[in-house]
Amino acid sequence: MAQFVPRRSFGVPSSVPKSYFLGHHHAAVSKLKTVLSRISLVIECRDFRLPLSTHNPILEKAVSGCPKIIVYTKHDLGSDSPGARQLLQKLHGRRALFWDKNHPSTTASLLKRLKETAYEVDSITGLCALIVGMPNVGKSTLLNALRSTGTTGRTTKVAKTGDQAGVTRKIGTSVRVVEPEERGGVGAGVYVLDSPGVFLPYVEDGETMIKISLVQGIKKGLIPDEILADYLLYKMNLWDPHLYHRYCSPTNDIHEFLLAVAKRDGKLKAGGVPDMGESAARVLSEWRKGKLGKYVLDDLSDEALQRHELMAASPPVSLNQGKKAWKEQRKENNA
């Protein structure tokens, strides 16, 4: 029997959009600049599965000059890539923290950092921090966790959350996450503002858009589930084809793979016809739960890091150009 050989590259369909830069993204960038005068610390959230792809240079520019820590969210979903955390820690040093909503100790670590910063700032009005990041990287979930762990006797869910991009549409009011000194906390307390996710104005690489869609960073349906499942099959074959052994033997054929998923998990239409759309959605759901491997999607090789640094230093287009490109893409897709 011939040895299985995985695909070494993925052909990105031309239909994949190159941006998801909406009106409220543009408005959020402008609004961020108006609140910075009262911000002592920026908490930038990035998805640990996409540590490069969820770094937005536009946000970096908008909050430049303000002390910042980087919180890599959903850390548990990248635990099969053990070298990734060490590499990111080496890149960012003490500025990098790794967070997982299911591990309270990671929330406690961030609260400790906020308290340390509050002591250093020593403001009579308390420390005010601002959470920023790309859409659906876990900003609001993080805020709720900080509130729940850092305060007592208060409403714990203060920010609306969801498993899709665009739940938060405007900068919220400040939320106390650490009590003042007289209530067992520090100084005048610690307050955090949530903000809307802001997408990149333009993404030259279609593969990056697919990866962001896999982690639900853009609106569902902009990239068909079948394309996302095919990309995931490509990546799983490179990681370890045994990840999907419960469905079928190693294959590069997405039709064959989804057919096996439909048969095993009962994703069938009337008359027993396989429902390929439902099968693709099932694959994505299982992967997002960590049941088809917990790997970092981004390439973290030295070459990839250098390319990313160059891109971050000189983003492809300006905000206005990105907005125009997004409108043109939508017109083209609707034609």
TrEMBL record:
By its UniProt entry, which Pfam families does this protein fall under? Answer: MMR_HSR1
Superkingdom of origin organism: Eukaryota
Keyword terms of this UniProt record: GTP-binding, Nucleotide-binding
Naming one, the record's GO cellular component terms include: mitochondrion
Q: Where are the transmembrane segments?
A: none
G domain ranges (all copies): 130-204
What GO MF annotations does this protein's record show?
A: GTP binding; GTPase activity
Q: Matching SUPFAM superfamilies, A to Z?
A: P-loop containing nucleoside triphosphate hydrolases
GO BP term, pick one? mitochondrial translation
Q: Where is this region: Disordered?
A: 312-335
Q: Does the UniProt entry include the keyword GTP-binding?
A: yes
Task: Name the residue ranges with Basic and acidic residues bias.
Answer: 325-335
Indicate whether Acetylation appears among the record's keywords.
no
PANTHER family named among the record's database cross-references: MITOCHONDRIAL RIBOSOME-ASSOCIATED GTPASE 1
This protein is called G domain-containing protein
